[in-house]
Amino acid sequence: MKLDDAAARLEALGNPTRLKIYRSLVRAGAEGMAVGRLQAKLDIAASTLSHHLKSLVVVGLVTQTREGTTLVCHANYPLMRDLLGYMVEECCAEGSCAPVVLPKVA
Amino acid sequence: MKLDDAAARLEALGNPTRLKIYRSLVRAGAEGMAVGRLQAKLDIAASTLSHHLKSLVVVGLVTQTREGTTLVCHANYPLMRDLLGYMVEECCAEGSCAPVVLPKVA
DNA sequence: AAGGTATTTCTAAATTTCTGGAAATACAGT
DNA sequence: ACTGTATTTCCAGAAATTTAGAAATACCTT
Fold first, then answer.
1. Helix (H) or strand (E) holding A65
2. B82, A65 in Cβ contact below 8 A?
3. Contact call for B10 and A6, based on CB within 8 A
4. Are A22 and B80 inside 8 Å of each other by CB?
5. pLDDT at residue B99 is higher than 60
6. Which of A78, A86, B85, B100 pairs with A96 at a CA distance of 20 to 30 A?
7. In this structure, are residues A14 and B61 in contact, taking their beta carbons and an 8 Å threshold?
């Protein structure tokens, strides 16, 4: 991962509302969560949520799949893993925040 | 760590210039790096650098110690560890980005 | 095609961020 | 006290973000 990409992803997560969105999607697990349910849960305007979701989708942290009229959102776990891996590799010193072990996905 | 604090720290790192600053400080290791050297290395205006450093200091990711007229900056490793720990705990699902092992500092 | 639900896009206003020149401050040495 | 180096603060402008109402679009059902 390039530094600029990492920064863009950190920026996407660096907003309380978007971090809540992302966390909700992580907790929703593999089945994900529809935009509408996300909106009810977080109690924000639909257009506002849509903008925030777009920010997360653009940087790849969230993916969306249509199911009829509803759009289901999913946290992109592998990308988060890569991002955390980048942070550990580039922004941690041995013996302080590292060693952080990031095992390969089976 | 609270969600709002995590978001604030991610936002601080979510800017290419600030991420470069932080990475430089990590690589500088325990002795840290003076603001002046950082400025020469990154080739940005002194006032711009000062603003970015302040952002990092405010959220606790960077600490500063005076040595005569020069200000030496240090990456706050334990806080980065906490931040990564938060991300793993709150924003990772078992078996996907987790398991990420964050051993305690000795 | 008509109607209903889900979501996005348009538009806009308030706020914040980013940048850096200029001036001010901090500290050391003479 | 004066000079010089290091850094911050003041100021300002351009650009981007955040928010959300209103209108538009997408899709399903009948």
1. strand A62-67
2. no
3. no
4. no
5. no
6. A78
7. no
How much is the pLDDT for B102?
55
Closest residue to A19, CB basis, from B6, B16, B26: B6
B92 pLDDT more than 70: yes
Which chain D positions have some atom within 7 A of a protein CB?
4-10, 17-23, 26-29
**Mean pLDDT confidence for B47-70:** 97
pLDDT for B35: 98
Closest Cα in chain B to A78: B97
Distance from CA of A15 to the nearest CA of B (A): 5
Residue B101 distance to chain A (closest CA, Å): 5
Place of tokens 């992580």: A26
Contact with chain A for residue B75, Cβ under 8 A: yes
Q: What is the rounded CA–CA span in Å between residue A80 and residue A60?
A: 9
Give dist(CA A88, CA A6) in Å, integer: 12
Q: How confident is the model at residue A99 (pLDDT cuts 50, 70, 90)?
A: very low
Residue A75 main-chain phi, psi, to 5 deg: -75, 135
**Which listed CATH number (3.40.50.2300, 3.30.210.10, 1.10.10.10, 3.30.43.10) goes with B3-75?**
1.10.10.10
Considering just the CA atoms, what is the radius of gyration of chain B in Å? 15
pLDDT tens for A50-86 read 999 999 999 999 999 999 999 999 999 999 999 999 9
Domain boundaries, given as residue ranges, for chain B: 3-75
CA pair distance A35, A69, nearest whole angstrom: 11
